[in-house]
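ok here's Centrosomal protein of 76 kDa:
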Amino acid sequence: MSLPPEKASELKQLIHQQLSKMDVHGRIREILAETIREELAPDQQQLSTEDLIKALKRRGIIDDVMKELNFVTDNVDQELPSSPKQPVCFTDRQSTLLKKTNIDPTRRYLYLQVLGGKAFLEHLQEPEPLPGQACSTFTLCLHFRNQRFRSKPVPCACEPDFHDGFLLEVHRENLGDGTRMADSTTMLSISDPVHMVLIKTDIFAETTLVASYFLEWRSVLGSENGVTNLTVELMGVGTESKVSVGILNIKLEMYPPLNQTLSQEVVNTQLALERQKTAEKERLFLVYAKQWWREYLQIRPSHNSRLVKIFAQDENGINRPVCSYVKPLRAGRLLDTPRQAARFVNVLGYERAPVIGGGGKQEQWCTLLAFLCRNKGDCEDHANLLCSLLLGYGLEAFVCVGTKAKGVPHAWVMTCGTDGTVTFWDSLTGHRYLHKPINPDEPPAAEQPKPLYPYRTIGCVFNHQTFLGNCQPSDSVETCVFDLNDESKWKPMNEEAVKSVCAPGATTSLPPFPPLCASTIDASVTSNEIEMQLRLLVSEHRKDLGLTTVWEDQLSYLLSPALASYEFERTTSISAGNEEFQDAIRRAVPDGHTFKGFPIHFVYRNARRAFATCLRSPFCEEIICCRGDQVRLAVRVRVFTYPESACAVWIMFACECAS
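and the structure:
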């Protein structure tokens, strides 16, 4: 890649400063004089360049220089994972300045470059955006062995201009000695793929999952010089999983270069053996699952209509055991409590899998990376993530599959306490419900607990190790007894059979779970931006109605504690600080004046969309369009950030006017 002249001169200056700081020139002169004195034969007039480089290498000058220099990556975001492992390289999302990182010389790295795309035919007629014009963009997200990366956004086009490099550390976790550099044989046994997810973001910041691809990188181990070029065809998702959406040109390179490359035959044999082993495990599990299902139906023929979900299709249309979608997931220091984790999952957007035409719901359970990168998903995606986080906090958690009112299929999470308490967690709303079963044999006059939860029936529960089918006479949730060890009520699958295909590393077809990433949103800046946009929208709206607008800044500020209190209550189910807020408002509003306030909550940051929603509420419209004497308006926005750049946006509109 050629640099502009000003950048080239800047780079030369930096290199010159570094060499001057190390006094490399002086040391080279000394070695040159010494070499000429010791090694120049009487009949020789000059030394060759090769002889001088050998002398510099022998005395360690070149090694010293290489240790002092840093590798630089351009236009790449490495998202900061919650794990203690330090990031390899990253740049600020908004900045085009290069950032440097030290390379550990004892580690092995895979340098993955994306060198453009082609044949994205859906965007064949896409006009080239004008400078400064908003346009839809593609972003490529990667996950490899607990490391996550995100490319810079590029405009959607038939040939998108991807030019990014990602430095992936091929570290030896769980492989014994982590201090030595991984050699070719060791790396051949690392079956983790590079998971690549392509996201499209439109001009309204709405995201769409375009493709999800698992890159088998180990072909580079058998290529000459440890460098290989690949052409990757990306397929669509869901109903379009058999349709090509585009092609990426990818270059793979090992660093440091391999001392010994493997033969391509050895690499191909290893990959074939892994595929064969995985296929055999999956075949045996399928045979067992069919036998289990036959036994389950023999208990009662009516079980055939229950929602007992053993397999589910992922975004690529591949059937996988449901237990493989759940795994204990630790959030590091990003989330402190199980309830905070529930709030985080709740603020991720809800969207049913898109379906072309009618015919009911299209089923699509997303892999975790695809769900997190898109920042929204269906109820099953939310339930799988929440269950994984609760398992990470040491709770006994299960995903429940059943129905809500009107027989709508639904998934939620259940935890079982050591004292027998059963708690339902709704992953879409963040609400928690205690379950107390109704005894259908009690006389009609007996007082029974009234269920507050919206769930009607339950077919099965599962986590990463356990799968249980509900075999009680009724699948009604309110009469269900959750004694999961009672095989007359819950038919279990063999745990070893589940582990054979769902335990981490059991098969090469299982996508590894990515770590969560810290938010890149500045809460204060974003709150101010949305608030200023809302003020402008309110003023314009009132101007269209022939009304003037006067803002009361002090009143706006006094609304902050209320918004903080609302979010605290959503997270902890505890109400606090309301008395102080009411007292402050009473003091601020003069006698003979009326105060009205309207709080509302969103999980997106689009001010115009939020304002349109607010106007649909008669109470909010009454505040915004308030008429009268001495009308003062106030608006306060508070953005609460969560991992994966998810956020809860609280807005409160208020007004005071003479009664």
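+1. DSSP finds 16 helices and 26 strands in the chain.
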